[in-house]
Structure prediction request, 263 residues.
Amino acid sequence: MAATSPSRPHVLVLEDAPTYRQMVASRLAEAGFRVSAAAEAGRALSLAEHERLDLAIVDYYLPDYPGTELIKRLRATRRYRHLPIIVLTARDEELNLEYLRNRLSVVVLSKSCTMRRVLDAVSECLAIAVSGS
Amino acid sequence: MDSHSEHILVLEDGDTYRSMVEHTLAQAGLRVATTATSVEALLLARQEHFDLVIADYYLPDYPGTDFVRLLRQTDDYRNTPVILLTAWADELDRQQLCEDLLVLVLSKNCSMQRLLDAVFKCVAIVRLMG
Prediction:
């Protein structure tokens, strides 16, 4: 994927931990995606409002409330009703994954998985979104 | 207040909800200590004996489950009943948390009476075990 292409998919990364956020953002950028990163949900919502996102990667455990609250707000908008969303969590064993997948239509990934796996999931989600549109 | 009544530790960062739980438990004749932080909760747990712990899942620094794991590492609290309160109960795997950490997950949307019922059931178990 050409890094300079104006049509490269725009990915939002919402993650409060700076090291992990930078790691995900830089790997996505290296893979040719346009990346916007945010440390808190308010900033992420503002980005979503002012830019056109193609996919969002959202941490579950954020400082103020779960990332799922942001996802519900995005899903309530016409623009992002069907946005591909990946929930990243270090707490996947504590979460009701079936509920999250069924109720919020998200892909849940463990933070212990490799960056390669994250990149593959991003590509798969975008491919499904393109084929479904 | 009955000095022999069960002693409950409440860890909740939300001031209003913490006061509501404290008031409800105290009105029911239970002794209550409250705190807004995990660090202070662990200190209190070392200084005093608690028969039951009520902890919020969504805390500012780390999840209530991490607090429970630290608590479980101490001999005094290996089997102490813990009620985990959360406004996002549906998003948690209640069964897994019960199996892994021996916690009862309750929704913050439930009534104070429902919380009180759960507390007294846990207290009854403590008495049986004691």
